[in-house]
Design brief:
A hairpin with a 6-residue loop joins strand 5 and strand 6. This protein has 127 residues and is mainly beta. The protein has a domain of 82 residues: Immunoglobulins (Immunoglobulin-like). Helices cover 12% and strands 39% of the residues.
Length: 127
């Protein structure tokens, strides 16, 4: 009977620890964003950090289900901060879309206009 109780407690502990969050980071064209830094903070648990793979995918093993906050950042993209997700028991899936930062350049061509009065050529009007 004692063995059964120990095995049952071990199985209960292992199922409680099997909370996984998987996801994928893509850009606005659905192309994967590799090497994006993803951090997750769930309640009083320590903050976890990982990076997206070449296909934009990532995974976090969590201690327990609950409300979590995600931050995702990558150079050249706007940062996603405090993205809330409710993690349920088993597995949860997250899809994150990052928008690229774009620089806008404008140019103005300034041409020189001829002077209305040429001081080397006086005429009757300005003499």
């Amino acid at each position: 009977m004692l063995r059964f109780l120990i095995v049952a407690l071990a199985l209960a502990g292992s199922t409680a620890a099997q909370v996984h969050v998987t996801g994928r980071v893509v850009d606005e064209d659905e192309a994967p964003v590799a090497n994006a830094r993803i951090t997750v903070h769930c309640g009083g648990a320590p903050t976890l950090e990982t990076y997206s793979g070449p296909s934009g995918s990532f995974q976090f093993p969590l201690a327990a289900p609950g409300d979590c906050r995600f931050n995702v950042d990558r150079a050249g993209y706007f940062q996603l901060q405090n993205y809330a997700i409710a993690v349920t028991s088993g597995s949860s899936e997250v899809a994150v879309t990052l928008h690229p930062q774009r620089e806008v350049f404008q140019s103005v061509t300034v041409g020189a206009a001829p002077a209305p009065v040429d001081p080397r050529r006086p005429n009757a009007k300005n003499a």
